[in-house]
Amino acid sequence: MVSGSSKPKSNSAIAVEELRKLIFTGELPAGSDHLESELAMRLGMSRTPVREAALTLEGQGLLEVRARKGVRIRPISVKDMVEIYDVLTELESLAAADAARQDLPASDLKELSQTIADMQAALANEDREAWALADDRFHAELVRLGGNSRVISIVGRMVDQVRRAKAVTLQMRPLPTQSNADHEAVLQAIRVGDAEKARQIHRAHREGAKHVLITLLRQHSLHML
């Protein structure tokens, strides 16, 4: 009898995860070039799954596949981040409004509520990494609850660039207590079905996050990530 356990990950999926880690930690720096053979040796696998992973990561905007030259880790400029945040602000605000219109039961909002609790616990411990992970979960769940498949797809192609910028600036910023308050306010607006309030609060939240991020990048002369 076949067990209900999930299938083991393919080498391609493992390569995607490992390369993402190397990019986010800066072990594969922005602008650096790497041959498939080099990356395959580093990951301890053949070139085929590395090539497949590179194509996936290219679609996510993290690197560029160069014919017969391997890959280049794609730099992200301050201008890129402004544009990405502008798009995310509109799409996530739409998702917040859409979620509020659905009269979702409390059970459907359990994960959104849990992410906020996890963010509060992380702040209490001044654990910025744990806070960032919970924050990512909040935004992903908000977009999922909105139920618009195209919004989910477009946002999914941009979140890795945001994570990369957040990873660089996480220790530079003050503790994000206002961000937690914003998330709680968005959740409350969704609970009571106030679509316009959910939209407005989330838009202001994302615009504030953009301001903090872009200010830090410029203050520290981080023109490219």
TrEMBL record:
This is GntR family transcriptional regulator. Keywords: DNA-binding, Transcription, Transcription regulation. PROSITE patterns: HTH_GNTR. SUPFAM superfamilies: GntR ligand-binding domain-like, Winged helix' DNA-binding domain. Transmembrane segments: none annotated. It holds the Pfam family FCD. Residues 9-76 form the HTH gntR-type domain. It comes from Yoonia rhodophyticola. GO terms for molecular function: DNA binding; DNA-binding transcription factor activity.
